[in-house]
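Morning. Coffee machine broken again, so started the prediction first thing and wrote up yesterday's gels while waiting. Chain of 251 residues, entered below exactly as on the submission form.
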Amino acid sequence: MNEPVISLQSVGKRYQLDHRGQFPFGKIFRSSNNEEFWALKDINLEVGRGEKIGIFGPNGSGKSTLLRIISGITAPSSGNVHVKGRVLSMANLEAGFHPELTGEENIYLNSAILGLSLKDVRQRYKSIVDYSGIGAFIDVPFYMYSDGMKFRLAFSLVMNGDFDILIMDEVFVSGDIDFQNKTLSTINNLQKSKGLTTLVCSHVPRLILTVADKFYKLEKGRISKGSRNDILRAIRKRDRFWSNNIINNYK
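Came back before lunch.
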């Protein structure tokens, strides 16, 4: 493996439950008198520079929690995390956007959050707007944007940032197929030209299979090695389920 840029050693994440077994944000877990919930347990993972990692697993398996820990958004309850290089997390593309500001104003606001200088933003402004393809809507308040337009502007902005590690968590659900093709091409080009280290978790098979070439499975907070065939089997299983239900419902 290349020089590790991400290293997790015995990482765990614990959430405390209240006396009703209720998570602080309202999600109920049946705790059987336990007062804590481990979202991640004993995670050991090393990612080399330029590696392309795909993480898959069922809802609630800990995928998003793992990526948030690597991004520095949340801290682990146990273990050690070491990350070398500048991380760009696309776990929530709309974070940092103000609904009352126009697209142009939000570009300058978010660029400052990303650490770009005013000079850099002015130099990149036209390419950001052109890439997004939202045209005259750049002067419209952000709250008036459709989900697809928000995705376009946010993705265009972050792709013009400077980063070494890209982390993506279910970011393609709002993009139309043409823009998805465009973004996938951009990511692939960055992987080849800059040796971009990439981690992605998604229920969109096309995204994870296109962006990643090394796979891990998360289940009940524990990680294990996976493969492309694991994802293909999951796709076939899902497609059979939906096909059978559609056929049965519309006979």
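The radius of gyration is 20 Å. Going to sketch it on the whiteboard this afternoon.
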